[in-house]
Amino acid sequence: MTRGGFDGVAGCRHNILMPQPPLTVYYSPAYVVEGKSETVTKSKLVAEMIEAGNAGEVWLEAPKLATRQELESIHTSEHVRSTFEDKGSFLEVGPWSQPLLDSILASTGGMRDAVKEALKNGRSGSLSSGLHHARKNSGNGFCQFNGLALAALEALKKVKTVGILDLDAHAGGGTFDILGDHKQVYLADVTVNSFDSWEPSDPARHFYVEVDNPKGYLGHVEDALHSLERVDFLIYNAGMDTYEKAGGMKGITKEMIRKREKLVVHWARARKIPHIFALAGGYKWGGLTLEQVAELHLETVKAFAA
Ligand SMILES: [Zn+2]
Prior knowledge:
- About 35% of the residues lie in helices and about 10% in strands.
- By secondary structure, it is α/β, with parallel strands linked by helices.
- The protein has one domain: Histone deacetylase domain (Arginase, Chain A, 3-Layer(aba) Sandwich), CATH 3.40.800.
- The protein has an eight-stranded parallel sheet with strand order 2-1-3-8-7-4-5-6, with helices on both faces.
- The N terminus is likely disordered.
- The site of zinc ion (ZN) has 6 residues, from loops.
């Protein structure tokens, strides 16, 4: 069955014994721009795996596009204007194109709709990538708009505090640039790579670590979650580029990534706080196929759907 405004990609199997409604995940074909980087191509394969039933009970739903007004709540009006009107380069993957702009607006809007769904039904996600490096006044590192920041502001319409857990290989310096001073936003960032690193300015709300030994990785993730004990809503940037064969750190195995996803979900459920995910980084750099990258991201969807 299809719910939402597009045909062909949706999955639903009813089970009356389920204690919670099926997971709704935001995605539409507009997310995808063929021939471009993994950031705007892999979601299609993840959606196909969901549709085939490989992630359990999951609905796919098309989001509403992010509006200029929403984007101006997190970015300078000049950055938004130049994105819409100038012939420039998005995501560092090629010349301006309407499909690329539509992709960014759809996947950014998916983060806002995931928040709304999680506030109603406890959990959600969006097959969005390319978020956490985008700063107030510019795009950066495959990220044009910061959908994590938009999601945080959306959640704060209903809750008092929001946590953004960023487990992408790279740091979320863009998110810090936009929300580092926001007193209701807690940031926890576990990285294996110093790209876009940031300096915590408020130890009560900021947790940052660059991992130097894979054996300590899951312990750092636990510490990051501990730093978010006070939040009422969790936004999880579930990067797969930490995995050793996806361009990440040698010694971080697929089994560790699976454990990480379960750890995050169990933590949020134990505290009964709404939680959403974004796909974030995950690349073919280490020799993986796009299908293998998508299978890694499916681990996040499975953990949320279980
Ligand atoms: Zn990354």
